[in-house]
Amino acid sequence: xxxxxxxxxxxxxxxxxxxxxxWKPRVLGAWRVPVSGPVILAVNHAHNLDGPxxxxxxxxxxxxxxKQEAFTGPLxxxxxxxxxxxxxxxxxxxxxxxxxxxxxxxxxxxxxxxxGTRGEGDFAAIRGGLAYFAVRSGASIVPxxxxxxxxxxxxxxxxxxxxxxxxxxxxxxxxxxxxxxxxRTRKALDEAxxxxxxxxxxxxxxxxxxxxx
Length: 213
Prior knowledge:
The chain is of the alpha/beta class. The protein has helices at about 5-20, 50-55, 75-80, 95-105, 130-135, 185-210; strands spanning about 25-30, 40-45, 65, 85, 110, 140-145, 165-170. About 35% of the residues lie in helices and about 15% in strands. Helix 3 (about 75-80) links the parallel strand 3 and strand 4 (about 85).
């Protein structure tokens, strides 16, 4: 079943309330996200709140690929209702792949943490799934840097960025992952992954320079 577009719009509204109610987001370059058509937001991942933060600051509703471990208890049905996609990171999750491609096939926005898991958030190592979705769907990739979410100094609530602190969300220029040949071979996807990593790393460096982070 295709993830709910209306649900993702509701999730965006919740994200807006969360983001602007608890922190002081500075959003730069949101105009670079195409206003229509399939788009993949490739986001660095340093904190568990990076996804909700982006949902509340992106100019369009986002369907994120989220690890299945997060779909526990009442959070699971909630994430389903707001159009998020559960993925088993330990296997080739065909259901998740199909649902993600459906989002893009219907001209929606897919959110991906290309590093695969939370870490330094520096795009140092990215998985090949991003290249597959981009090349298979023809969707544009927009790199996104979330900076300040893992700030520790001044925390009042353990595990959360300091309340009312500034968090920077910087959107980069959209680009195509493929080489224009339409190839979907393993070699073509490997080459696309290398190109993507270079673009993401360059965007993160520029975002840090721009924000002073």
